[in-house]
Amino acid sequence: MYKLFIVDDEQLVVETLSTMIDWNASGVRIAGTANNGKQALERILESDPDVILTDIRMPGMSGLELIRALKEKGCQAECIIVSGYSEFEYAKEAIELEAVDYLIKPAELEEVSRTVLRAIERLERKRDPAGNRPELRIAKALDRAVFTDLIVHAKRPSFDRVPYERYGQFAAIVIGSPAALWLERMKSSGVTDALLGFLANQGIEVELLYEQQKIILLCMAAMEESESLSEILMAAAAAFSDDGSPASDNLALSFGIGPVVSGIMDAHRSFLAADQACQMGLFFGVPVTDGNAWPEIARASERWLSEWSERIESFTRYEQKPFEELLECWTEWGRRRWMAPVFLKKTGIQWVNRLLDLVERDYGIKIGSVIEDRSLLIEGLLEAPDWASLQKQCHDCAQGVQFFLNVTKTSLKEKVVQEIKTYLESHYHENIQLDQLAERFDLNASYVSHLYSKSTGQTILEYVTLLRIQQAKRMLRESSFKISKISQNVGYDNQRYFCQVFKKHVGVSPGQYREDHMIKIEESCSS
């Protein structure tokens, strides 16, 4: 039996590769596993496996560094790389290290099994120089990396284009799903194979890629009719996206179909439209979305965003009805499914921010009194996975604002006014600044002044002055403090100004008030 060693920093991957493939049927047994490069180096040298299956990016030592270190120590094992990264440079280095293949995660289990068997065949051909031709080394893996760079990343790598010149039509399909573990379920249920078989029966060649939890199909056909490929792809998507069909394994799949292009070097344009279409499908819950409509959707979204921004800025005060009408208008655009999700989120965020800004200003409150954290709310809108979630968050915000204003604002005002009065009664002798008072009660200064005067019929300054005069009168009656001392005690550093204010409110000077009051006390005592 041949010995296989598996290295990956994700234990779930190690367990899946170890247990989900019938290695015994292929004459292979697991010689060991490891979760990092350094650990693997030691164990591989001890177990001496025939084939090594390793990830690239791992803590301590990468998979490529592991292979290089093993070769330096004389290890003759055939190496296979399984990585979540499809960069061309990785594949190129893998070739230099004579790796058997370079598989992109999530790799089909059957593909992993076939690659291990191919590594074993290579071992058996070691004695035959003809069996070790450099041009056979991971040619398919290099193609996969090239395709990823070309289609997904819009790079222009060098590769042999001759095999693709016989195809006159190229189009991309991007498949996604909100379901948990949907890629694994598609693989295990055979949906992917069934889809590829359907396309093959129509004379369509397919390159299959996995990227960012999506399936990417580059479909190539040599057909005379320009619309033939699009029609076939739309039919395939409709058949395999149906939730109720046995083939779909009850998965909610979203297919984005890209426009047909005439050359392999233009395939990225088809992928980009297909990817955007798939994102729209996932966001709105649509099984099949035609990427040919994407340019117009993008233009319409830009126009709507511009018009929306102008309407939002036109509001200068908060009034419930206009904001409710605006929210309904926004909701209607979402129902029509004719706006790119990113633009719909931007307009929703603009609505929320304008609403909260005006409520905060018009009612003189810190918005934290209405919602817990504005930044978390905005983050939630940005990360909304679908239209229903985005819509609910905006409506919840509107309802929260209305509840606060309609149910609590009256009692809140009464409470705030009473708290201000209590504070002033204890601090009237201090130099009270309106902005500091507002900050203390988490309100803005203009609102504090307006609220207090409207609720009590007097300004804050008038009430502070009243408190000071009352306390000065008491001290003039009940103490022998000099007037200068009394002036300082009640909050006036300038005695002359204190005397002016006192006379204005009492009608006599502080000295006269004390003299008159002392006479009255003496008269009362003598009688």
From TrEMBL:
Annotated Pfam families: GGDEF_2 (PF17853), HTH_18 (PF12833), Response_reg (PF00072)
InterPro entries on file: CdaR_GGDEF, CheY-like_superfamily, Homeodomain-like_sf, HptR, HTH_AraC, HTH_AraC-typ_CS, Sig_transdc_resp-reg_receiver, Tscrpt_reg_AraC-type_HTH
Compartments (UniProt record): Cytoplasm
The HTH araC/xylS-type domain, residue ranges: 418-516
Keywords, ordered alphabetically: Cytoplasm, DNA-binding, Phosphoprotein, Transcription, Transcription regulation, Two-component regulatory system
Chain ranges of the Response regulatory domain: 3-120
GO cellular component terms, semicolon-separated: cytoplasm
Protein name as it appears in the record: Chemotaxis protein CheY
Organism of origin: Paenibacillus durus (Paenibacillus azotofixans)
